[in-house]
């Protein structure tokens, strides 16, 4: 936009041979009544409006900072009309929710501690190049609008997406660029002195990573490579922060005075520390979570009675005593870690809790598993179906369908509490998306495995990183369902505790954090990957930023833990199982594109007839790939034969037998459909044989349209007309038995008896018999294929003996 009232600043992103990108920040023209409003452009094509507003009165009854981030995706931005019934935008899409979380995570710790006024940041997508991703631009816009709003905010915060393409880290890549990328990473941070401190990371390998690394020689995203990417992102973050600072220097409002509500006063903390340090320190050495929390509750109630009761020094200040007691716990836990290198449950800094992995835990489902790490327990359940069941997307993204769908559920009982159940909260959506991204790089292609896959992670017990537990349980369940993963994936959550010692900040990285260690620590760093490379990363911090070398060290520490977990998972299942007898069978047939219309038929008549006759489901792609799904192999093969008969027609041979369908009756016989498009005449003289050779007045007295009849091709005349004969079963005394109407049998060609042993049908029948045997074994005791298998190992206080306590703190923690 243009005008004398507009103030702007620009950041130029130099990607070398990949060109430059320009990010422009403007203010002064739109949304003038908001505390801060910034219009953000990416290459003058993608436009976002970011606004920041604050409530006038503090919510002093809250014990947290009430920050809300909303992303409004306007479909007009991409030239679309919403596909909903009312043709307008409704609830936010998954992409919008994930973008809200990306913005919230680096912004929240940058506000002054104790602020209780409501703050709302709203991002509205106004225009969008379909090849652009708007999420990173939105983070920068949110920081810029907050920076000029007059709120106590320690920004600016810069964010960039960097992708590893042809060995170079490219900033602000397009969707089309990411197809050639082996690793995609969103990094947010702020300038601290001469360095850039990293505040948030969201990263994953791409769907192309496996092929690029294994077959095209691309660089694998190992821990060392990812650390290089974090370092490479710093120069782009610095440029973006400088542009925001330039805008703020011209247009920022004066920082206003807001009342701050500290959790407690110093005198309250001093009193709690003096009265409760000894008992609290002893309680924090109890390994069992329930026992420890019970003892801590007793101490807290005792302190409240002694310090805040009637006539006591802190009378009426119960909330302050509770908050001070929590701070005391935090101090004691952190001191023990930094001083003694010992954690709450007695583990060392690198120790992992006892592990357990088990597959085939539920009957009838297509794949299932339970993964346990200490008191964190996750059940994974896999469901397979036809590709037509994949999720259809109506969003601003160019992605219109999703074959792999990962849902994560976190019920309140997982932490021993009560609460609301129902539609997923933002946190559940975010954790499901993280687990989904961790597994995407190792999933087979559509051509290799033509199934829609739904994976559900049920958090049955939570005591630290259920999201990474979901990655492990999902890998096990997918393998149990027969999904040919390229490699198993495991995940681990890392923590961090820091303190200033002799003027220098010391850091201690923790492997496999508990819920309490997440709550009392400075970082939640989740890393998932295979034995060879990283597939997903998520970092959140409560600090202003973390040095990149500290994160690189945590990555290396996480790799050791991941390899150990993969060994345990391998003990439970080391290769894809055979598919469950309850899972649909999907096969693919390739037909010429110009034959698609013939297979579908007028108004879908032909494809519907094939589905009705065979009991299979058909889905046709634009490239001529026909996916056929059925509950059993013979039905799928019957549908395949029917499709091939239309798309690749072959003249039947004399002597071939068919279970045909009567499609028309006349005075001289009946026309029987052998294959789609291939009908033959069953003369009335042959029809009489169905009633023992007796005279009949009309063909309709014996055969009805739609009736099935076993026939043999007797003759093909020079014009290609087919003459049929009734198949007379040797030794059969009941002529009527030759004309039956089985409900689910399709028009499958039956080979001559002499060739039956070598025919495809015979092979299918053999396969079906094996499947039936497996099913029987699975239902009975001692089934050899689909049965429960376990793997487990303990590391902790006593390595190799499976001991090591478990703890938690707070069910609302974003990392569980």
Automatic annotation (TrEMBL):
GO terms for molecular function: 3'-5'-RNA exonuclease activity; magnesium ion binding; polyribonucleotide nucleotidyltransferase activity; RNA binding. Its main location: cytoplasm. Mg(2+) binds at residues 518, 524. Residues 785-797 have a biased composition (Basic residues). One of its GO terms (cellular component) is cytosol. Its cofactor is Mg(2+). Residues 655-727 form the S1 motif domain. The keyword Nuclease does not apply. It catalyses: RNA(n+1) + phosphate = RNA(n) + a ribonucleoside 5'-diphosphate. Residues 733-816 are annotated as: Disordered. It holds the Pfam family KH_1. GO terms for biological process: mRNA catabolic process; RNA processing. Residues 740-764 have a biased composition (Low complexity). This is Polyribonucleotide nucleotidyltransferase.
């Amino acid at each position: 936009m243009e005008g004398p009232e507009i103030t702007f600043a620009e950041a130029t992103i130099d990607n070398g041979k990949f060109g430059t990108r320009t990010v422009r920040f403007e203010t002064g023209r739109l949304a003038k009544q908001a505390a801060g409003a910034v219009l953000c452009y990416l290459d003058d094509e993608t436009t976002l409006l970011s606004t920041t507003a604050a409530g006038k009165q503090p919510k002093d009854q809250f014990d947290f900072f009430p920050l809300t981030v909303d992303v409004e995706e306007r479909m007009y931005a991409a030239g679309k009309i919403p596909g909903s019934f009312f043709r307008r935008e409704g609830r936010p899409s998954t992409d919008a929710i994930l973008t809200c979380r990306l913005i919230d995570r680096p912004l929240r710790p940058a506000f002054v501690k104790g602020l209780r006024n409501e703050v709302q940041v709203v991002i509205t997508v106004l225009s969008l190049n379909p090849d652009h991703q708007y999420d990173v631009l939105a983070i920068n816009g949110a920081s810029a609008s907050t920076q000029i709003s007059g709120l106590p905010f320690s920004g600016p915060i810069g964010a960039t997406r960097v992708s590893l393409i042809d060995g170079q880290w490219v900033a602000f890549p397009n969707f089309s660029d990411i197809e050639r990328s082996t690793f995609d990473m969103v990094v947010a941070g702020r300038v601290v002195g001469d360095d850039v401190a990293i505040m948030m990371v969201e990263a994953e390998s791409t769907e192309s990573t496996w092929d690029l690394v294994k077959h095209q020689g691309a660089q694998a995203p190992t821990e060392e490579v990812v650390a290089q990417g974090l370092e490479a992102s710093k120069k782009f973050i610095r440029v973006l922060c400088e542009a925001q600072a330039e805008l703020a220097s011209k247009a920022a409002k004066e920082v206003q005075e807001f009342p701050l509500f500290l959790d407690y006063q110093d005198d309250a903390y001093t009193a709690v520390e003096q009265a409760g340090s000894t008992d609290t320190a002893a309680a924090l050495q109890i390994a069992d979570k329930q026992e420890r929390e019970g003892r801590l509750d007793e101490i807290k109630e005792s302190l409240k009675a002694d310090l805040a009761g009637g006539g006591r020094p802190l009378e009426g200040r119960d909330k302050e005593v509770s908050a001070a007691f929590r701070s005391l716990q935090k101090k004691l836990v952190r001191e023990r870690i930094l001083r003694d290198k010992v954690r709450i449950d007695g583990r060392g800094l690198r120790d992992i809790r006892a592990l357990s992995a088990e597959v085939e835990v539920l009957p009838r489902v297509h794949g299932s598993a339970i993964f346990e790490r200490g008191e964190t327990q996750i059940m994974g359940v896999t469901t397979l179906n036809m590709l037509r069941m994949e999720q259809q997307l109506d969003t601003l993204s160019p992605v219109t369908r999703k074959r792999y769908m990962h849902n994560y559920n976190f019920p309140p009982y997982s932490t021993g509490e009560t609460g609301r159940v129902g539609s997923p909260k933002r946190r559940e959506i975010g954790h499901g998306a993280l687990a989904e991204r961790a597994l995407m790089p190792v999933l087979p292609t559509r051509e290799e495995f033509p199934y829609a896959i739904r994976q559900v992670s049920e958090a049955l017990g939570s005591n630290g990183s259920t999201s990474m537990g979901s990655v492990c349980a999902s890998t096990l369940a997918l393998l149990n369902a027969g999904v040919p993963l390229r490699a198993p994936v495991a995940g681990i959550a890392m923590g961090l505790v820091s303190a200033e010692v002799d003027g220098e900040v010391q850091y201690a990285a923790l492997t496999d954090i508990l819920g309490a260690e997440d709550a009392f620590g400075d970082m939640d760093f989740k890393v998932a990957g295979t034995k060879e490379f990283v597939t997903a990363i998520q970092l959140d911090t409560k600090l202003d930023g973390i040095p990149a070398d500290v994160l690189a060290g945590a990555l290396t520490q996480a790799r050791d833990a991941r390899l150990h977990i993969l060994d345990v998972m391998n003990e439970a299942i080391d290769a894809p199982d055979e598919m469950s007898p309850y899972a649909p069978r999907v096969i693919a047939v390739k037909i010429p594109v110009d034959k698609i219309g013939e297979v579908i038929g007028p108004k879908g008549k032909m494809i519907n007839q094939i589905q009705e006759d065979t009991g299979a489901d058909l889905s046709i792609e634009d490239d001529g790939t026909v996916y056929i799904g059925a509950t059993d192999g013979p039905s799928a093969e019957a549908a395949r034969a029917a499709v091939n008969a239309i798309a690749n027609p072959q003249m039947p041979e004399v002597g071939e037998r068919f279970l045909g369908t009567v499609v028309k009756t006349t005075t001289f016989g009946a026309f029987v459909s052998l294959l789609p498009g291939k009908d033959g005449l069953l003369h009335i003289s042959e029809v009489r044989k169905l009633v023992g050779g007796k005279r009949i007045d009309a063909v309709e007295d014996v055969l009805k349209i739609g009736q099935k009849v076993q026939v043999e091709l007797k003759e093909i005349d020079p014009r290609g007309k087919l003459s049929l004969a009734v198949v007379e079963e040797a030794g059969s005394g009941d002529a009527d038995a030759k004309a039956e109407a089985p409900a689910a049998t399709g028009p499958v060609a039956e080979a001559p008896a002499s060739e039956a042993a070598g025919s495809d049908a015979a092979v299918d029948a053999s396969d079906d018999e094996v499947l039936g045997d497996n099913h029987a074994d699975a239902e009975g005791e001692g089934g050899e294929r689909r049965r429960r298998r376990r793997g487990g190992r303990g590391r902790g206080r006593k390595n190799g003996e499976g001991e090591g306590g478990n703890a938690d703190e707070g069910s609302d923690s974003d990392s569980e």
